[in-house]
Structures are given as structure tokens and as C-alpha cells.
Model the fold of this input.
Amino acid sequence: MNERPLLMLATYGMEIVECGGAIAKHVRAGGAAYAAVAFARPESRPQVEAAAAILGITEVVFLGLDSGDLPIGAAAKIPFVELIRRWKPAIIITQDPVHAYEDLDPGRRDIMGVYLEAIALAGRDWRSAECGGWPPHLAESVYFMTPSEPNCLVDVADVWDLKERAMDQLGSQLAFSGESYRRRFSPEAIRLLAPDADPAGEAAALGRALHRTIDLAFHVSQAVHSHSGLAIAEPYRKMGPFALDRLR
Done:
């Protein structure tokens, strides 16, 4: 029985599904999984909770932060420190610092610093009363999702159906994707990516059709093209070195 909890620090919510293979496999092995979401809009929250439930996540907490106006100082860090100390995760997954810095989604750069500072502060004797009175807790491992230079892969072929079912729940975010892709791509390009999709159709349906192709291509490229021997994989970069008792 795996009793080492996992915590997903998700910026908008879809990251939970993007890392859904690793999360689902952790839960299947007997571990608990939790998620904290920084910026999810109110209308997206029930959808994120439904997706999380499919993957086996025990609890999702929405921080309700403003992606364009994070408070300075301790205010944004305290709720994350409290959750880390309360849930005591051995493993934390969060966005990649390099990817976050180069991404034009608002708030990704600012919240990255909050995540890392909260992880560090959670392991120190810092503002105990304001952080729920929980004792300090330092996670054993931090993994960055979808990095440009991964150093580990998780085989997700056997849980791909769960990732797909979870993605189906995210109607609001899929609608955003559909509108974004419609502005970015020509109708001909959209039909090439998703032959059955209607380029002028409903935004969420368009976003879902395009995500099926784009997500599969991404996960296959990480696996097959990496010569890893895997078919479909989620890429991660572990923060710090791997400590091995032997080479394998």
C-alpha cells in the first residue's frame, strides 16, 4: 500500500488533467492525491472537481486568487503553506518554471514564485498560527510538469481513458481553447487537425476535438520519439537529483 500523499498545485485547473496519468497511477497504487487550484473561475470549479474525481483525487481546494493581481508578501503564500502542512504530501507536482516564465497566460510567472516559496516555507517554523497550527512539513520530491527538458517519463497508456474522460468534463476551459484555436488557425488547418470538427461550430466541441489530436500527439511525441520504449507518456522534470541505491 502506497501511503505517500501527492499534491497537485494547478494554476488554472486543466493542469490536473494534463498530469492525470501520473495522478491516477498514484491513486491506483494506494496513495492519496490532493489538488490546490490558484485561479479557476467560479463556473469552472464544478467541472474541475468532476475531472478530479474521475482521476481519484480526494479533495480539491480553490484559492480564488486574481491572476493579474497577486498580493505581495505572505498573503498569497499562507494558504498554500497551510495545505502542504495539512496534507503532508511526499510528492508535489506543479508547473515548470521555464515554461511558466515563457507562457503568456496571465499569472503563471507570479504564481510560480509563490509555489516554490510556499513549498520551502512549509518545511520551516514559519507563521504556524496563521497556517492552521500544523507542524512544518517538507515534501520529499517536487516534479515540474511538461518541461522543455524532462528527465523522467510516466507511462500513461493504461490510464489514457481516465485522462480523456477527465478532459471531457472541462467545458469552460475547452470553450476557451476552441475560441483561441479558431482565431489562431485557418479552417483548413482545423480540419487537418480534427477532420470531424466544425471550424465554425460550438466552441467547447471544437476545443475538445482539437485537444484529442493535440494531446495525443504531445504524449506520443514524448514517448515514441524519445526512444524510451513507451507508447504514450507524461513528461516531468524532478527538482534536484535522483538518489539511487543502484543503477537500473
Remarks:
- The mean pLDDT is 96.
